[in-house]
Hints:
It contains four helices and eight strands. The mean pLDDT is 92. By secondary structure, it is α/β, with parallel strands linked by helices. The protein has a single domain (30-160), classed as Restriction endonuclease-like alpha-beta roll domain (Restriction endonuclease-like alpha-beta roll fold, Roll), CATH 3.10.640. It is globular, with a radius of gyration of 15 Å. The strands form two sheets. It has a six-stranded mixed sheet. The chain has a two-stranded antiparallel sheet with strand order 1-2. The longest helix has 14 residues, at 30-43.
Amino acid sequence: MAERPLLPRKLRLHAGERAVVFARGINESSEHVLMKALLWALYLPQYPQLSVEIRIGDRYKPDVVQLDAEGRPVFWGEAGQVGEAKIRALVKRYRETHFAIAKWNRSLQPYTQIVRAALDGVQRSAPFDLIAFPADSARRFVDADGVVRVTWDEIEHTHLRP
């Protein structure tokens, strides 16, 4: 049986010089919280002003986001389930936004097909990433002091260019 991470309701995690408190909602799985933390840490070098779980004035709320000076998302990360309709709506609305979707212990093949279908016919200038975090991610990428260390060569990922 795959190992399941058990996280407290609130967890302060660090990556680089930044720290964020990740709060697990009543119906939110530990895997979902961990995927948000791993997305945050993975993209922090590229997007140093990343925020977690903030409203940006859209119908949808990103799990991880960085906004530009005008409040538009330049990076948008989702953890877990995201349907084709939501993906299509977002990529049409934010054509210059780098998107990433993280999955927990799953093959990316079926999700790559879903994202390609959602992107079909949409003119975009930013990439779309799919990431699969392994089942032992909590043990592998988060140390006892709450420091998150994850690199691209340690995870499965697909980078779809516009």
